[in-house]
Amino acid sequence: MGDYTVIADTGAHLVAMLQEALVPELISDISEIGLRSPEDRGDAVLGVFLYDVRQSEEVFLPTRTVHSERISRPPLYLSLYYMITAYAKGDAAYRLTQEELILGRVIQFLYDNPVIPLEAVDAQAEGGIELHIQMLNPDSDEKSKIWSFPNVGNRLSLFYRISPVAVDSAVSHAFVRVTDVDVRVSGR
Questions:
Q1: How does pLDDT run across 18-31, given as a tens digit for each residue?
Q2: Phi, psi at 101, each rounded to 5°
Q3: What's the pTM?
Q4: Is the CB of residue 80 less than 8 Å from the CB of residue 50?
Q5: Torsions phi, psi of 45, nearest 5?
Q6: 117, CA 20 to 30 Å: which among 8, 12, 70, 153?
């Protein structure tokens, strides 16, 4: 399952997947794809922005054993919501076409690769749940609420959810397993 770093690890893995899909065919360098806020995109040609984190209602597990002598609270399962935006360079006619090509390839690649193996984001994963990538279809009002950055005009963006992302509890308690039972029966 996941340490508190699993949110950052998931975002980094999503970026690495997109770098694999787009460089060098549509984007010249991997440094032009990254985790970026639309307010501070820098030199990015493709920005991946985590805009929401919610508790997943899809998964719940009871208390579980951590080691042979410790028990912990169950992991907290999250859904991570990403906005993916292209920022091609050049004159307007070329830029819009290039952005459409980039976003089209992102759609195709994530459609063909809808699962992230748990081992890709959690080095200590043991029998956990793989992460699923799902394209979202927010309406215009929802998109406007998500894209609420002052002095930054709206751009065509894609919206995805990755879930269930497990964050393990840091709280655990020691316990002792029953190894012997002494049963005595007395007659009356």
A1: 999 999 999 999 99
A2: -65, -45
A3: 0.86
A4: yes
A5: -100, -25
A6: 70
SS3 163: strand
The CA-based dihedral angle spanning residues 144, 147, 148, 153, taken in that order and rounded to the nearest 10 degrees: -100
Q: Where are the beta strands (DSSP E) in the chain?
A: 33-35, 46-55, 64-67, 70-72, 76-86, 115-116, 131-135, 157-167, 172-174
* Whole-angstrom distance, CA of residue 135 vs CA of residue 81: 10
What single DSSP character describes residue 31? G
| In the block, residue with structure tokens 């793989």 | 130
Q: How far apart are CA 34 and CA 52, in angstroms?
A: 17
d(C-alpha 42, C-alpha 52), whole Å: 21
CA dist 97 and 102 (Å) reads 9
